[in-house]
């Protein structure tokens, strides 16, 4: 009873602390603009599609075909485009080839046409239209739209299916972008129907309207002329303020806080805090703030409160680059509407010279549709920089609505975005809704499995009550959904006097499978026992505080999908669910399955390392069959994940792969029956101390996984089970002083091994991998279990936590492409494509390097880019200019990630 009461109190405490879909408009062949929207994309006016008088803005827009990445444009589309009067904006359709463009003939295969429009300035974009041929050999299946401010970081803002009937000519498909987004760059990815021979495109048009100029939101003091922040600049009176963060994971160096707005020094701006005193050119202590000497690799983390929700356009971060030993190498920006749930906008490296000897600006940009009341900026002092000196930070952007307009008696419908983190967790954002003018005090959230046009007779799944976190932030993290299920979602406004507006326009979402696999980030998972177990040392009276701290740090990682635990506590489902995590459970009979499904859990295991426990394989097989039958009788979507082997070796006759062989063979039919007793193969591929080393590498290095995974797949295939998905529910390295089971590693090596292990798993098609584990179980230095965590027993992040954080940020939205060519052991690397960045990500490392090594190798990388951005797993950022088409990248055991517009090749490693 005491546990449950405590857990319920924690749920209340936590609650207190605490793709996109499209609407297709009616099909028409002549462009019809919605009220107030105008053609932005430079389409010729006066022809068939855009008659004289069509509302348009002379933006000077142009487009290019994207030739890189997963959705690279079919070459035939580009060669058939008329460069004199580009086909996609000439104002005309086919069938004349002079006014349309066609892919090469490729029946039975995918092909794409990917356009990037530069509107030359930022506009409010409200719709995108595509005209495409529908004859019996041509079909565009659908198109997606992404938006960007800087042409570097994009956000998917919608998709539209082509519902036109065959042989209806060049027919129009429309995406209404709801809510409308602010953007300069619009990327349109058109997908050919694989069943058709070609995709013939006639025209693409972007619609929207003008915006007010971007204005300062961060309350910077505007000085007289001569300063960068002077009285000539537009500024919105937000009353914004900022604070430095002092909590983990990104603790601000104490001196940065101590010397900010130092009252003993006159900053000539009436005592304005240093970051917003308007003096961006300064180099004196009166208007800058400095970390302590020796702050190598330390952070300065500041959060701006803008007091209302805005669209962030640009961010200026002014820091000192001097003498090579005073240099911020980059920063990360995160945005939030509620101050709890943050979204990362990515990293911005400092491209300035380290010896500029002045305060330099490192500008970053917002992301269309990612709105903010709170803006968190995590500045990183370079790993070889002694001091971080910050001069000014300015946040620019636009109003999303005018709260001073007359109030409405009937509120507008709520437009919102819906983003799936995984099959279970849904993020809803309606932060651009004008709740003041609409006089709305709360919202209802409806999530149904059938379409609906009114909420009459329905019960909301969630109500954002007045003054709640969700009502104020206009943002909801909702769990738990069912996998592979279509949902219809609506958010309704409740007027302060007139009740609920019940008529709705729903968004349809379809959840992915339990194991996902559509993106690399589906692999990220953890082992974290909320209240410990085994060798766990309890924290006594502070155990609840420790749990809440873990949940915050888990949420801050930003991409953990699932946690593995043995209990079925409803309170823990709620606590972890609010942090975006669902559970993988042990199967304890059908009585728990429905409630576990309701909490987001759809994977279950019977055993944990049955080979080590010397379980009889035949008896284990019988137990698996019984559990599989009873599990499926309750929920066909639930998966039995077995058998959690303790290793992938044949060192002992009754363990590892030998035990797995015996499990399969126990049916007397080479596994023909046994393979049907479970849905997913589960292994614990620890790289044991006794394993022979990979040639040239240290014993225990994660590159051994490549051999282990291959041997596992060989065994599975030999029993006719080669197509079964594989997950890893335990893998880790311990920072203990022992060395009997796993090799001893220092904290930096644990971080490096984590990143390398995950990438090897991704390359081998592993669907989910749970790091073991999140927190050290105690403080004994020679105890393996007390040192496996990403955070220590006191809750302080270890280097591996920051490595996991970086790995998730870099790879979670990417797709795996393959291995880097022209390298071999001890050098390793993989290549990925990030659609949101329009860039390749190439990872590289030297597996033979040790933390005690005195020198590193250098990879000579050939690139057609003028330069590349490099993010290190050690937290470093760097922009490196190419010299004669080559960039020299130092390699160590810590992986680096090279961002490039075009694919890179490794010429040599010196």
Automatic annotation (TrEMBL):
Residues 1-33 form the signal peptide. Residues 76-106, 268-289 are annotated as: Disordered. The keyword Signal applies. InterPro entries: FA58C (IPR000421), Galactose-bd-like_sf (IPR008979), GH (IPR017853), Glycosyl_Hydrolase_39 (IPR051923). It holds the Pfam family F5_F8_type_C. Residues 103-193 form the F5/8 type C domain. Keywords: Signal. Gene3D superfamilies: Galactose-binding domain-like, Glycosidases. The keyword ATP-binding does not apply. It comes from the Bacteria. This is F5/8 type C domain-containing protein. It comes from Paenibacillus germinis.
């Amino acid at each position: 009873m005491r546990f449950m009461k405590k857990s319920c109190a924690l749920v209340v405490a936590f609650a207190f602390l605490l793709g996109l879909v499209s609407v297709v408009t009616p099909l028409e062949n002549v462009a019809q603009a919605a009220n107030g929207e105008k053609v932005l994309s430079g389409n010729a006016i006066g022809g068939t599609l855009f008659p004289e008088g069509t509302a348009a803005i002379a933006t000077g827009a142009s487009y290019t075909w994207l030739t890189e990445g997963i959705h690279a444009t079919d070459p035939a589309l580009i060669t058939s485009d008329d460069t004199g009067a580009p086909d996609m904006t000439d104002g005309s359709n086919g069938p004349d080839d002079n006014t349309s463009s066609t892919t090469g003939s490729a029946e039975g295969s995918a092909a794409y046409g990917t356009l990037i429009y530069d509107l030359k300035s930022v506009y409010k974009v409200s719709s995108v239209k595509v005209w495409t041929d529908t004859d019996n050999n041509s079909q565009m299946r659908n198109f997606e739209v992404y938006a960007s401010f800087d042409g570097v970081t994009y956000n998917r803002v919608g998709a539209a299916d082509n519902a036109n009937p065959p042989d209806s000519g060049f027919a129009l498909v429309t995406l209404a972008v709801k809510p409308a987004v602010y953007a300069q760059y619009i990327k349109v990815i058109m997908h050919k129907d694989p069943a058709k021979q070609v995709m013939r495109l006639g025209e693409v048009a972007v619609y929207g309207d003008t915006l007010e100029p971007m204005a300062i939101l961060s309350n910077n003091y505007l000085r007289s002329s001569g300063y960068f922040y002077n009285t000539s600049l537009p500024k919105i009176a937000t009353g914004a303020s900022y604070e430095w963060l002092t909590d983990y994971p990104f603790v601000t160096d104490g001196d940065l806080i101590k010397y900010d707005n130092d009252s003993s020094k006159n900053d000539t701006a009436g005592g304005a805090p240093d970051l917003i005193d308007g003096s961006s050119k300064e180099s004196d202590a009166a208007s800058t703030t400095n970390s302590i000497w020796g702050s190598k690799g330390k952070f300065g983390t500041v959060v701006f409160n803008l007091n209302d929700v805005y669209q962030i356009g640009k961010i200026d971060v002014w820091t000192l680059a001097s003498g090579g030993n005073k240099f911020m190498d980059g920063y990360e920006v995160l945005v939030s509407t509620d101050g709890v749930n943050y979204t990362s906008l990515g990293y911005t490296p400092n491209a300035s010279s380290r010896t500029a000897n002045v305060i330099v600006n490192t500008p970053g940009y917002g992301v269309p549709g990612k709105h903010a009341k709170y803006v968190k900026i995590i500045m990183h002092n370079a790993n070889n920089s002694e001091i971080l000196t910050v001069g000014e930070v300015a946040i620019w952007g636009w109003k999303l609505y005018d709260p001073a307009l007359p109030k409405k008696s009937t509120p507008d419908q709520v437009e919102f975005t819906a983003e799936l983190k995984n099959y279970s967790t849904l993020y809803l954002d309606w932060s651009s809704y004008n709740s003041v003018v609409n006089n709305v005090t709360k919202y209802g959230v409806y999530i149904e499995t059938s379409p609906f046009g009114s909420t009459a007779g329905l019960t909301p799944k969630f109500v954002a009550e007045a003054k709640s976190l969700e009502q104020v932030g206009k943002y909801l993290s909702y769990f738990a959904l069912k996998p592979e299920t279509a949902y219809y979602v609506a958010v309704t406004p409740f007027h302060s006097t007139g009740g609920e507006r019940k008529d709705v326009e729903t968004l349809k979402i379809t959840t992915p499978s339990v194991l996902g696999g559509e993106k690399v980030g589906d692999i990220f998972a953890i082992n974290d026992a909320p209240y410990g177990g085994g060798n766990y040392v309890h924290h006594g009276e502070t155990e609840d505080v420790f749990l809440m701290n873990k949940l915050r740090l888990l949420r801050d990682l930003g991409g953990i999908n699932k946690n593995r635990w043995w209990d079925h506590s409803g309170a823990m489902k709620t606590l972890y669910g609010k942090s975006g995590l669902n559970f993988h459970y042990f199967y304890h009979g059908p009585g728990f399955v429905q409630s576990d499904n309701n909490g987001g859990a759809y994977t279950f295991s019977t055993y944990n390392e049955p080979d080590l426990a010397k379980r009889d394989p035949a008896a284990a097989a019988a137990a698996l069959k019984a559990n599989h039958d009873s599990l499926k009788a309750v929920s066909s979507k639930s998966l039995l994940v077995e058998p959690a082997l303790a290793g992938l070796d044949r060192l002992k006759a009754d363990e590892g792969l030998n035990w797995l062989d015996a499990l399969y063979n126990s049916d007397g039919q080479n596994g023909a029956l046994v393979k049907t007793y479970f849905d997913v193969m589960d292994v614990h591929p620890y790289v044991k101390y006794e394993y022979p080393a990979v040639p040239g590498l240290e014993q225990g290095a994660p590159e051994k996984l490549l051999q282990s995974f291959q041997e596992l797949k060989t065994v599975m295939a030999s029993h006719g089970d080669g197509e079964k998905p594989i997950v890893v529910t335990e893998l880790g390295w311990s920072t203990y002083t022992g060395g009997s089971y796993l090799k001893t590693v220092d904290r930096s090596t644990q971080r490096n091994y984590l990143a390398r292990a995950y990438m090897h798993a991704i390359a081998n098609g592993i669907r989910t991998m749970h790091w073991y584990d999140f927190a050290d179980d105690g403080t004994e230095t020679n105890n393996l279990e007390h040192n496996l965590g990403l955070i220590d027993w006191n809750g302080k992040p270890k280097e591996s936590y920051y490595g996991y954080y970086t790995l998730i940020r870099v790879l979670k939205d990417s797709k795996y492409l393959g291995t880097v060519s022209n390298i071999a052991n001890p050098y390793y690397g993989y290549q990925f494509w990030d659609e949101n960045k329009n860039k390749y990500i190439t990872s590289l490392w030297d597996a033979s390097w040790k933390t005690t090594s005195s020198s590193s190798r250098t990879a000579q990388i050939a690139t057609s880019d003028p330069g590349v951005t490099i993010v290190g797993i050690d937290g470093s950022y760097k922009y490196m200019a190419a010299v004669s088409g080559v960039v020299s990248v130092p390699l160590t055991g810590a992986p680096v990630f090279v961002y490039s517009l075009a694919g890179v090749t490794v010429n040599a490693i010196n």
